[in-house]
Amino acid sequence: MAMGDPRHSTSSRGSNFSAEATAVNPNSSQNTPKVPDFPELSDAASGAGSSSSSDEDDDVSEAPFPEDPIQGWPQLASLMAKTPDFATFSRFRDLNVKSLLYYQAQLTVLRKKLHDLEYADAGKGKNWAERADKLVESTESDQFLLVKDMRVVLKEYSES
Question: What residue numbers bound the domain in which 129 lies?
Fold first, then answer.
């Protein structure tokens, strides 16, 4: 390997993720080696062969890993697959909360529109509040079309 090979850096301060780079624990004066120095998981340690292991665990422990994945996402994915304790994924809680708030806003608008249509239809002599079967059978009902749109948003909201 050439000294200036960009795939392998010995500096932990570089911006490139490297197989030979080290991670520094701010609470320790020692450096922790990365990918190549970790021992391979034994069958006992990885849970292979135990009746409690899941299919996902078996897939990861038995999957062949490239010896030298390219830097970036492939190398990070390899590290996370070999060492599950390093795997971390964002839950995007703030975005999930915002999404729920937007659903609530949509549903509030739909509720108001439905309420207005119920009163408007009742004023026209179409009192579907007493006969839901007539509302469902009506092809010209803006009220029922709105209910169908509302169901889509409600389903998405409930699944969130």
Answer: 93-159
- 73 and 112 housed in the same domain: no
DSSP the chain: --TT-TT----SSSSS--TT-EEEPTT-SSEEE-GGGSPPPPHHHHTTT-TT--HHHHHHHHS---SSPPTTHHHHHHHHHH-GGG------HHHHHHHHHHHHHHHHHHHHHHHHHHHHHHHTT--TTS-HHHHHH-SS-HHHHHHHHHHHHHHHHHH-
This prediction has a pTM of 0.50
**73-123 pLDDT tens trace:** 999 998 899 899 888 899 999 999 999 999 999 999 999 999 999 999 889
**Does 109 lie in the same domain as 59?**
no
- Among 71, 86, 101, identify where a domain stops: 86
Per residue in 44-61, pLDDT (tens digit) is: 444 444 444 455 554 555
